[in-house]
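Exam prep: given the inputs below (a chain plus S-adenosyl-L-homocysteine), describe the expected output before reading on.
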Amino acid sequence: MENEQISIHDFDVSLICELHIGLERQGPGSPEMTIKALSFLDNLDKISRVADLGCGTGGQTMILAQNINGNITGVDFFPDFINIFNDNAKKFNLQDRVNGIVGLMENLPFQKEEFDLIWSEGAIANIGFEKALNYWKDFLKTDGYIAVTYESWFTDKRPAEIEKFWVDAVPEINTIGHNISIMQKAGYHFVAAFTLPEKCWTDNYFIPREAAQKALLKKYPGNKTVEAFVACMQHEAKLYSKYKQYYGYVFYIGKKIKMV
Ligand code: SAH
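Solution:
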């Protein structure tokens, strides 16, 4: 198929934004997995400052806010996502401690050692796992936690078709063991890693996204770019159902330690 050669990088970000804006989440995940990741933190009651980087419209941020007491700042580079994020904060009556700002994950407007917790679901690959872990660490207090989801290989070897697809999408993609060692090298104590269940991809992401894809095609009838974009999304979902035993999102949780 011709469209199998087209990669997500070939499309305008505004199209990606338009597809995802009405969805509760902009990537795989679930409230249960956000809460599970939180369960590995040993100082939940002491958390006062949290950053959620690549927050999207805040699906996971509102769950976080309902389970911890601190103030959360969401950062995303799409202003439209941030508008919805702040509307959602109001909807959940969380506006006093949840605030979204437009910004870049790789150029944060924060003070050094400002945060007790840095969260990021489905976004870290946009700036690179290793680079982000190193850069974000400066904004964490000693003993502060980082919790991120990141695309990871489950096996050492993969069929060529899926290897090619993901190396193109996320050139740094690697195995769980390798990613844990990257986290340790970046100066974190490794706390936990667990795999997101399949439902986080299917029920919570691909299925609602499929409905949004249909709506997009209806909105732009005969538009070749939109058709190619939707075909690219469908291809991604098809590959997932075919190769899901080889890869998925993994939650990585680490604690910034003081080097002595
Ligand atoms: N955390 C949300 C969204 C994940 S999608 C969820 O799990 O539902 C990835 C998000 O990262 C998108 O909202 C995208 O706009 C944002 N993003 C990508 N690159 C970024 C960058 N360099 N700086 C800030 N946000 C970025």
